[in-house]
Amino acid sequence: MLCAIRNNFVRKIGVRNFVGVVGVPFEKGQRKEGVALGPDAIRRAGLIDELKNLGLDVKDYGNIKYEPESLPGIDNMSHLGEVAACTRELSQAIQNIIKEGRKAVTLGGDHSVGIGAIDGHVKAKGNIGVLWVDAHADLNTNKTSDSGNVHGMPVALLTSELSDYWPHLPGMDWQMPMLSIRNVAYIGLRSVDKYERLVIEKFGITAFGMEDVERYGIHEVVHMALKKIDPHSEKSLHVSFDIDALDPLEAPSTGTAVRGGLSLREGIHLMEEVYRTNRLNAIDLVEVNPEIGDERSVKLTTEAAIQILQAGLGYTRRGLKVPPGVTDIPLQTFR
Predict the structure, then answer these.
(1) Dihedrals φ, ψ of 39, to 5°?
(2) Active site residue: 82, 119, 196, 244, which one?
(3) What would you report as the CA-atom Rg of the chain, rounded to the nearest whole angstrom?
(4) Which sequence spans correspond to the domains of the chain?
(5) 3-state SS of 158-214?
(6) Given 27, 50, 89, 134, which residue is catalytic?
(7) Given the residues 79, 136, 238, 269, the one annotated as active site
(8) Which in 96, 109, 186, 334 has the greatest CB count within 10 A?
(9) Out of 79, 151, 238, 269, which one is annotated catalytic?
(10) Whole-angstrom Cα distance, residue 152 to residue 138?
(11) Does residue 79 carry a catalytic annotation?
(12) Catalytic one among 111, 121, 238, 269?
């Protein structure tokens, strides 16, 4: 009943924004089974209806499909052929969504899908700014990774300053690193490898760990990060949100949980502030693994994912904002 009232209200006051949702049931960027089930688990938890209840015009493009490529192996880089094929398809899908005038929402899958999502955004919009919200820096190369898991490498693959640190990668010729590392800011770090720390310091990468969140508060951290990557407030913005940025108490069903993370309230506030720039055009929500934990854990995690996405697409805890020019709401609106 309440949903019907809210939908009626939204229709009558004319709120309209356009969103495109694409699922990427991909888990070859890491070794734990189940994260490929993340997109459909988030949908089943009610994502599409919740976004429509905000008055959004939502188009669900379904899940990415791809044909794995048989490619020469690269030392210490697992499943490169599958990563290359999947992320190439995703890049094209994101380009199409943005060119249709919609904000792109990518549901992972593991964080290697960020390669395709951000590549597509860059190709559609040009010079973008990226907030990488994560417990981990995902800044390894195949030479520095302890695991060979590609979900720990996407930032290094995407950024132009690190392109010389890679060998030729078969199947990845479609993806040229066009994103400057100066246009990337981390929020929520608390598990950073030694090499990643060295790269962060060498290139002066904007990186806010949990100690910075504790020192300055999430509001100031978000605005400091945005000022660094977008000092003139002109870039299209992309938030790549790994659910493990949240503390495991808030989102336990994820593969590489690290204690001491963001509260759900902090995650929501982060997304609300980026939304308020009016330049947030793409969001990734990744690493939800419904095979980890019990039913309650999965419910907590998928609900957290939906709340993060809602905040990035206009939901405010103060309630929906009435558009300019609407000064009165007839009583029949609620009948």
Answers:
(1) -55, -45
(2) 244
(3) 19
(4) 16-317
(5) HEHHHHHHCCCCCCCCCCCCCECHHHEEEEEECECCHHHHHHHHHHCCEEEEHHHHH
(6) 134
(7) 136
(8) 109
(9) 151
(10) 4
(11) no
(12) 111
219 counts as catalytic:
no
pTM score of the predicted model: 0.92
How many helices and strands in the chain, by DSSP H and E? 11, 8
* 303, 305, 307, 308: CA torsion to nearest 10: 160
Task: Choose the catalytic residue: 110, 138, 196, 266.
Answer: 138
Cis ω before 209 (30° cut-off from 0): no
- The answer to whether 63 and 50 are in contact (CB under 8 A) is no
Name the CATH architecture for the domain at 16-317.
3-Layer(aba) Sandwich (3.40)
* CA 201, 203, 207, 212 torsion-angle sign: positive
Told to judge if 238 belongs to the known catalytic residues of this protein, a careful annotator would answer no
pLDDT tens for the chain, 335 residues: list them: 444 444 444 444 344 599 999 999 999 999 999 999 999 999 999 999 999 999 999 999 999 999 987 877 788 998 999 999 999 999 999 999 999 999 999 999 999 999 999 999 999 999 999 999 999 999 999 999 999 999 999 999 999 999 999 999 999 999 999 999 999 999 999 999 999 999 999 999 999 999 999 999 999 999 999 999 999 999 999 999 999 999 999 999 999 999 999 999 999 999 999 999 999 999 999 999 999 999 999 999 999 999 999 999 999 898 766 666 666 666 555 55
Contact criterion met (CB below 8 Å) for 243 and 135: no
**Is 134 designated active site?**
yes
Instruction: Give the Cα separation of 325 and 231 in Å (integer).
Output: 32
Q: Which of 82, 89, 119, 242 is catalytic?
A: 242
136 carries an active-site annotation: yes
